[in-house]
Amino acid sequence: MKLGIGEALNMDLNDFITNLYAMLLPLSFSIEIDARPLPNSTSILDVLFRALNLIFSPRTSGTTASPWRSAAFSKRLLTVSLHWPTAAVLRSLEFVRGLVAKDPKLEAMLATEDRIFNGVYRADVDDPQLCHPFESSFWELHALYRQHWDPRVRMEAENLLNYKSV
Questions:
Q1: Cβ(56)–Cβ(70) under 8 Å?
Q2: Among candidate residues 8, 10, 132, the one with its CA nearest the CA of residue 61
Q3: What are phi and psi of 129, to 5 degrees?
Q4: CA 2, CA 114: separation in Å to the nearest integer?
């Protein structure tokens, strides 16, 4: 396919997004998630967050991501953060905070009580569109806030739990 001057290449990224979402759980067990194999190289974590930033950037997607996609990735990132080293957890918390700031619907997931659920969250489903993330809450933040050994993680988790949109 040859593109002429001024033409745009439109690509459907749904398969890429679904595969990236599916990779998050196996990455939670990677002991080299933040390791740099060679000098001046990038870590798996760097590549992951570069891909996530591209997916959720309004410049690349044309619009903001749908609430279900933001909720699904936030939920899964918080779940895998329970297993990641401190640097990876802090990046995940920062990323989730950005998604919550962009989409007020995600704020409801910060509360673990006073919610009525219409279905079941499917953590075992590797498709962000089918996992029903709004049927759960960000309970992982409470675990990170109460149980994590690093005080920076506890502080960032608490800040996110107390997040209020302006």
A1: yes
A2: 10
A3: -80, -20
A4: 55
Q: Which two tokens stand for residue 114?
A: 């006073």
| Whole-structure pTM value | 0.87
- Tokens matching residue 109: 């997931």
Residue 5, amino acid: I
| Nearby residues of 143 by Cβ (< 8 Å), 6 or more positions away | 82
Token code pair at residue 145: 């806030």
* Distance in angstroms (rounded) separating the CA atoms of residues 51 and 122: 23
Those residues whose C-beta lies under 8 Å from the C-beta of residue 98, and which sit 6 or more positions away, are 56
Phi, psi of 60, rounded to the nearest 5 degrees: -90, -35
DSSP 105: G
User: For 60-97, what is each residue's pLDDT tens digit?
Assistant: 545 667 999 999 999 999 999 999 999 999 999 999 99
Q: What is the largest CA-CA distance in the chain?
A: 57
Whether the CB-CB separation of 110 and 97 falls below 8 Å is answered with no
The distance from CA 53 to its chain's CA centroid, rounded to whole angstroms, is 10
